[in-house]
Amino acid sequence: MLQARHQWILAALLMLHPSILLAQEDHIQYGLYGTYQSAGAPAFSRVDTDLMFDWTDGAPAVTVGPDFQGRWTGQILIRSQKPYRFSSELLGHVTVQIGEQTVFDGRAVEPTYVTGEPVDVPLGFQDLQVTFQSLPQGGMLKLFWATDDFQTEPVPAHLLFHEDDSNGAKLVETGRQLFEAHRCHRCHTGVLDQELLPAPALWGITNGTNPQWIVQKLMNKNAEAAHAKMPDFGLDEQQADDIAQYLHRLGVPFDLVTAPAPKENDKQPSGDELLHSLGCLGCHQVGELGTTGPFAGSDLTHIGAKRSPDWLATWLSTPERINPQHHMPAFKLDRTERGLLAHALSKLGREDGMKYNVSDTVIPTVQVDRGRELVKRLHCANCHKIPAIEADLRPFPQLRQPIDDWSATCLADKPDLAAGRPHFPKTNREALKAYVNTIAGQTPHPLSTQERGRLVLNRNNCLGCHRRGMELGLA
Questions:
Q1: Which whole number is the average pLDDT over 442-462?
Q2: Which residues of 192-216 are buried (b: 16+ CB within 10 A; e: fewer)?
Q3: How far apart are CA 106 and CA 116, in angstroms?
Q4: Cα distance between residue 378 and residue 242, in whole Å
Q5: This prediction's pTM
Q6: Is the pLDDT of residue 3 over 70?
Q7: Measured between alpha carbons, how far is 397 from 411 in angstroms, rounded to an integer?
Q8: pLDDT above 50: residue 23
């Protein structure tokens, strides 16, 4: 529990604004520690920002069955001297304890709104513990409160806190996000309960792209390598060039939109102003500004060294022409605005004389064949759609057993090109190991609609722009 001599100071700070508290006490974080456990399975832990759950049609996590016990611990800030009345939209049995006092105990065998009696609760930070038992058909827990000072409302997320991460829940959650962002499920199947977006298809991938950038990308030596989702296979320059030439040979099935010449005037924003005002930095990074993370968009700091102005104009107008399975949001830009933004982006990292198309030199067939064989051997088709090459999952384990020797996996310190095994030099490998250890040997359970929705918000990086709960977006 927070030390008593700090409680009133921190409470006063939080009365002004929650961010003041977190700035002064960086060991305090929003949310409660939630621990979930179904019979015969290991416990699963995570940080939950609120207590508003609906598991009537599925499980809270892939390793937790619909019939489970839940427990949330942390602190709650009490700011009213009036008696509190707790209530819940409930399916199952819930007990809410503040300090040593049980303030709410409710049961429901079908979804029902249950109201407790008024209770006096001491002011300031108080220990909070919530325990919940679902029913075999599922569960629901949505916790509310009210006093004479305010009407019934959900227990606010900005009044729930925890102090440290002694159980490693945040590390596991980081690993789960990285597992999805790196598309580990494309080789190690049977772990996730829904299909995620594949990597971009590789036919036409070289159109409007700097050929040298492709080689550097395959060698993990491009400027954006620190944020790469793709693993490093340990290719040398000749091998990377062989694959690049094979990709060039795959052809170009789409035409690029011509980026209109920029005509800036005082009546409209410049390209740089559009870049900083449209919300681009909610998903992307440019220099020291913007967003990084497992589901963030690509780093745009050197995008001009990668893509041509025409490619950028096409992506801003009709991204499905380049990647039919993209999740780029649609922006209502007119032709002039797209031209201004495309040209502003094309200047980032671009050098004089940079070319974006392969030369007219005839590519030797033997080099293309070497590239194709490398693409097959490295199982690129497991993530990317490639003409005449199918995904092959046979060499890859489904992570059903605990892993004792990480040096023989793609989380090893180095890649093994001979075995076709990559590695991830820039990612948080300890987080990935922690997550894989939680799912090893477990039978996956279908998630509830609410849990799937929460993951979709996360995967699509919606909260990079939009505010929800304690996520501030671009605010």
A1: 90
A2: bbeeeebbbbbbbbbbbbbbebbbb
A3: 8
A4: 13
A5: 0.88
A6: no
A7: 14
A8: no
